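Page 47, continued from p. 46.
Same chain as before, 37 aa.
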Amino acid sequence: MADDGVAEVYQEDVPESAEATAVEAQEGCPVSVITVD
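Result:
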């Protein structure tokens, strides 16, 4: 939890086996807070 009460998660590298799931989560996020580079 950040100081402002909002949860933050940072993952440097998405494992190759989870990349498709991460992109799907990014595309389905209604407020565009998930980014997969």
